[in-house]
């Protein structure tokens, strides 16, 4: 992955954010405490551990999994993790025949409510372009080597439609609890740039 151009944020982004924050506060549109709550929410409360719980539950509960694949938003909300209003979440299952990969070719739309803040590379131009042009090559750079007969499906996220990958449950996990299984599930596996490894 080191050959990726992990484009760094613009040098003036922080200044712009501070300027916007100052204006919003001055106009009384937001207050400090509300901002802190929102930032804390996305930095500390929402993260890949939520998606991992969803995945582990789907691995152990066939009814939940069926509902999850049929209606991601409603089923994730069932276990107390509603997304942003107006944002639909679709869950795409990896199988022996199909590997799913999530991207936002236009900008950086990402399933925040289940994965938290996106990794820098997700927003980079090379990732966004290559996910469409050469998804297999991209996956190989991430260490995911697929058999030739596995179809790669690329899902392009939008402001209204987000995607979460349901990775395959690894071997050697029979009898593990939902919490134990969720420890195995990585953020990248839920974006599709990784697979879930069997327990060590
Ligand atoms: Fe986007």
Plain-language structure description:
- The structure is a single chain.
- By secondary structure, the chain is α/β, with parallel strands linked by helices.
- It folds into 2 domains: 12-44, no CATH class; 46-191, Nitrile Hydratase, Chain A.
- Helix content is 46%, strand content 12%.
- It contains 11 helices and 4 strands; from the N terminus they run αααααββααααββαα.
- The strands form 2 sheets. A two-stranded parallel ribbon has the order 1-4. It has a two-stranded parallel ribbon with strand order 2-3.
- The chain is globular and about 55 Å long.
- Residues 1-6 have low confidence and may be disordered.
Sum up the structure in keywords.
two-stranded parallel sheet; disordered N terminus; alpha/beta; Nitrile Hydratase, Chain A; binds fe (iii) ion; 200 residues
Helices and strands in order, then pairings?
Layout: H1 13-26, H2 32-45, H3 48-60, H4 62-70, H5 72-78, E1 88-93, E2 98-103, H6 112-115, H7 120-123, H8 125-133, H9 135-141, E3 151-156, E4 161-166, H10 178-184, H11 187-191
Parallel strand pairs: 1-4, 2-3
Helix pairs in contact: 3-4, 3-10, 4-5, 8-9
This protein binds fe (iii) ion.
Fe (iii) ion (FE) binds at residues 104, 106-109, 157.
